[in-house]
Amino acid sequence: MAYEKKSVWHYSEIEEDEETARLMPGFEIQYIITDETTNDNEGAVFGHCIFPPKSQHFPHRHQAAQEVVYVFKGRVVNGSVDEDGVITETECGPGAATHVAKGQIHWTRNPYDEPAEFAFAYYGAPSLAKSGYVDHKDDVPIENVEVTGELKHESLVDKDLAKFA
Prior knowledge:
Elements: H1 18-23, E1 28-33, E2 44-51, E3 55-62, E4 66-73, E5 76-81, E6 86-92, E7 97-100, E8 106-110, E9 116-123, E10 133-135, E11 150-156, H2 159-162
Antiparallel strand pairs: 1-2, 2-9, 3-8, 3-10, 4-7, 4-9, 5-6, 5-8, 6-11
Protein name: Cupin domain-containing protein
Domain Cupin type-2: 48-120
InterPro entries: Cupin_2 (IPR013096), RmlC-like_jellyroll (IPR014710), RmlC_Cupin_sf (IPR011051)
């Protein structure tokens, strides 16, 4: 979809694209501020997402961008792998913000019975395509189970794979 570039957008104006639908089937997600929608944008993405109950976005990383997720409604579990290979998942409700370093493996999932609504932003790249997205679904198998508070997994991810960019 080609957009007329402007500085103010409402998420309802953004259509779902094929790549987003492939990566996150069944989600309502709009990449609102990108290099395709906004003039002079060289390094930021801002988006809106509603995760249906029992859904998940699998482990991945952005080689060229940091990411922030801010929850408005419902709850999600934000997970990540640190450079020592330690897997940590945290329950995040309304008002919670999560930061992910450039190159860090991470994911968001909704194992709960209600939908979750949040905003996300990438810093360092102006689009998903330019963020250096790498899928790690098969490298970090995560079950979509509920988490209360914070959970550190006993299993580790290989340190060479876990290294940030």
